[in-house]
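Re: your question from the hallway

Yes, I did run it. Sequences:
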Amino acid sequence: MGKRELYTSMGLGIDMALEAHDIVRGDTGQEIPGVRMDKKTYPNAEVSIIGIMDKSAEAMMGKPVGTYITIDAPEIRQNNKQVHNEIAEVLAEQLSSMLKIGPDDSVLLVGLGNWNATPDALGPRVINYTLVTRHLKKYAPQDLSGGLRSVSALAPGVLGITGIETAEIIRGVVEKTQPNLIIAIDALAAQNTERIATSIQLADTGIAPGSGIGNQRMGINRETMGVPVIAIGVPTVVNAAVIAQGTLDRFLQQLANNPALGQNAGSFNPIILENIIKEVLGPYKTNLMVTPKEIDDLIEAIGKIISGGISIALHPSVDPEEFHMYLH
Amino acid sequence: MGKRELYTSMGLGIDMALEAHDIVRGDTGQEIPGVRMDKKTYPNAEVSIIGIMDKSAEAMMGKPVGTYITIDAPEIRQNNKQVHNEIAEVLAEQLSSMLKIGPDDSVLLVGLGNWNATPDALGPRVINYTLVTRHLKKYAPQDLSGGLRSVSALAPGVLGITGIETAEIIRGVVEKTQPNLIIAIDALAAQNTERIATSIQLADTGIAPGSGIGNQRMGINRETMGVPVIAIGVPTVVNAAVIAQGTLDRFLQQLANNPALGQNAGSFNPIILENIIKEVLGPYKTNLMVTPKEIDDLIEAIGKIISGGISIALHPSVDPEEFHMYLH
Amino acid sequence: MGKRELYTSMGLGIDMALEAHDIVRGDTGQEIPGVRMDKKTYPNAEVSIIGIMDKSAEAMMGKPVGTYITIDAPEIRQNNKQVHNEIAEVLAEQLSSMLKIGPDDSVLLVGLGNWNATPDALGPRVINYTLVTRHLKKYAPQDLSGGLRSVSALAPGVLGITGIETAEIIRGVVEKTQPNLIIAIDALAAQNTERIATSIQLADTGIAPGSGIGNQRMGINRETMGVPVIAIGVPTVVNAAVIAQGTLDRFLQQLANNPALGQNAGSFNPIILENIIKEVLGPYKTNLMVTPKEIDDLIEAIGKIISGGISIALHPSVDPEEFHMYLH
Amino acid sequence: MGKRELYTSMGLGIDMALEAHDIVRGDTGQEIPGVRMDKKTYPNAEVSIIGIMDKSAEAMMGKPVGTYITIDAPEIRQNNKQVHNEIAEVLAEQLSSMLKIGPDDSVLLVGLGNWNATPDALGPRVINYTLVTRHLKKYAPQDLSGGLRSVSALAPGVLGITGIETAEIIRGVVEKTQPNLIIAIDALAAQNTERIATSIQLADTGIAPGSGIGNQRMGINRETMGVPVIAIGVPTVVNAAVIAQGTLDRFLQQLANNPALGQNAGSFNPIILENIIKEVLGPYKTNLMVTPKEIDDLIEAIGKIISGGISIALHPSVDPEEFHMYLH
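Structure:
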């Protein structure tokens, strides 16, 4: 049983396209038809651009047709503001490459997630850090808002706090305020603890149903919203099931490498492996999250980088220095 | 110049109908035509019910036609949970008298105000304490939600955080979720520091434009929302201008009572008084707020009382004890 | 290699005596000489009392001679305040059994841990919930403090925030205020996710160097403080290494049970197992923590239970109802 | 009755030496014997240095003999980080002029005040922003801490939270850790709302008993601590009594300027004035605080300025740029 089948059987998704790509390629051993991948290297960041180009690739990857950009920047952990600023500019550059809007188009930022749960609170935090301008454009004299795009922001909460599907709240606000684009910020789960609060995924597909830590029931995408949606996702946890699965994987590999011990290991019933993982997880099942000790500090840092990168991309006529100063 | 004229000239509103009533009556010296007032006494609370019955009364009171119930419960300051529970039940009783909904009607709670500013954060806090049930009614088996009314909740933020008129956000959500009633919770400014976090005003008129600490630009009422709106307001500040004005008032009264000193005091130019107040307030003008030192604790206490009282009123078939236990 | 040796090699401690007992017994297969264990069952809690009676038992258990009481109360997760109150009373009863102080003796509560890191913040939170009385006994009239024991409280912070060994800060305050007993509250790591925020360990030995999530360098015990120290510890995380180790353990057991596959599995080099775990953990090593999604709510609940239980035990002449009301 | 007598009678202190100087000079109409005042102007700040040189000046000013430096920087409200950095450097320069320590001397920062009450939380917040180094100097290799002075930090809490005199806690820690200097950060009350979160007072006298918002009972100064204490105070509130008094003052001046109205106003019984103020304040008495609406944001800004300025002054061999980057 491959990793993806196991996850599906346990009700676990793979949030990051880059990781799904690795897993699917790992299973098949070759490039996936209908998928294209490019890489670009920056001094403090590695950028991977995955294009899912047709329906068969969509089915294999478990991700809708579209473009997925991943910025891997482990240097974020060093807590050096100069580096943080550089990564915000990489984010701005990549985000700009996805923006298909004119200078007068307006943007609604949506911070998904539960503000009361540390690793799920990234979205609402970015909203708190963000400079909104829509009211200035609407109510203030020209000179206050000159050169600024109209940006509004919403932290809609989660189903358990509001009793309302998050997508319904956003759709209601979209109908009233008519933005030309939505940028939705969400916390994700990664496969690898090194990615926690150091990777950023941009997707021009919006957010699929059931993804993110908060597991949106309805998608937040062009189909449900009526306008394009760019999703910005940052992994803030690894599911404990992934740790357990990764341990088994490595052990089975050891057995495979050492025929004296494990000549029959390949024949292990996948049900047994799944049961071992379930036993280890106990009653919380797939609701157990793995985070580094310093997760609160890491989320503050990446939240400011996201907020800064978005502002630089949305207001290209403003000197990026301005946003660096205000956002740190 | 009467107090009301002075406030109008300074751009200050009078949030509580009971205080507006006192001021208008104080100016005229007699009951206001078209206004009715009843009183009811509870062991730990005094309830005043003001009816504004016609347009002329509306003009004099500066409040729309409707019913305004004020619960004055200074005992809240004593931090005795038994007393808090009793006041939550008084609130539930008074709120129930305003509810004109059937057992299957749904309710949307809206917590107005800025979650980042302590005295304005009452509304969002009540939302955080509240038990929402709409998603249970919709997605969960009957036995989980049996006997519970459908309640949803929203903390929309303020213009400076979202760039969107709060009323627009709520209107969008109302159109999507079709509640039968809105209950909007807001922080108010009082005339008297004794009322801070110890008085609760219920109004079946909703929220008028420009009222509350956050000064909503658009009203949140039946006209703008399409469904009835009950406003629950709690004063959490007194404007510093009120302190300055109250000081002058009392001094002028002393002069009036002592003809030897102040035979001409009545002839004081109201402009001079207004200028004195402006000088005392300095550059913050009417943005200076007076709060007791323990305001953080007081807002937590009254927030739980409001949340408890609303739940008791909305779910009449549940034992109030349940809500007391869960809300403290 | 047994679990304990593996942990030692990775620099991981076993915080809970009950779990150390299980592990050591598991390795040896029989009761440990010099260790005594009693059990007591309550409606919503299971209490285990372990006595480590001599130096040889101390060496085997890796815990100093003394008494360790564990209250396992998985019902805490149900969020039923009635149950929480009952568990607070079980805690009070067990804590009382450890208290060797007269009615006029004074107590210093110490909330260990980092208030900025959610799972390590339990200690400081308990301090915030606690009713302190020392200043009333000292400065207020008799009738305000009558029947109350002198209780003071300190949240000293952690080395990374203060630059000072926590034990040094406490020792300084002890010398100035001369309490007769210290009760130190700390967040622990468990072996089993079911214990997170649902188990409470009391130890009359105080806190050993290097234990707890914050890894105190110096012990906080009678030797370093000069007065008896009771430690109250609550697991709020499981180390991710434990998840990885538990997965391997279960897999090896499967191999052992199925000779056709694993006849040689017993001969696995323990170094290989340790390396697998290290690979899975990645650069964060043993700084990866596993918590359930709802950890913020769970810590609030257990924090109030701890605070309530301590107050009931320290002020036996006050009706426990009082503390239940004030602490929820 | 002068302002100072009125305050004394109401139990109100004057926290800022510069304001006490104004009031005393205002009463007497001339320079105070034994007091010296110098001014220095910076691009974004006005610095006033008051020397209280003998016991008679101490009695008139109500402040111990010593040097009091006030930095008035109203530009802080503009939220321009460049300006904030400049003011942090002015603070560093002024603080350096007070430091009488050698390069190897160690410093203990103490953040006074209640972390649960927004306007009193300035001290603990500065501690949270501060870079501590004492543990690096003690436990880490030379190259990690080279060029850094040993700095430790403490947020001891307030009497109502700990039950212990704050000065006792600090004294205990001082005896254990033997710093060469204490810098104590505290929130103050001002006479003028313009000073809120925009003025900084440095005093080489430490903190006198009964001063600051939290009203320390015992002084925190060389006498009680055994080492020199520099106090850094920032006004975060104005007492509502000051607003009331200021209103009366201005009104009486108007009367004095207009003999036709107020020829006898000077003969007003001061008791009457005090009673008016007490009536306006109501049951909270002098516990009513005036703050601007945006106080939460202002305290965050000034907290970072204080933290940055202290770090620049204490680590003169580090480029100030470093601290600007890390502290914003």
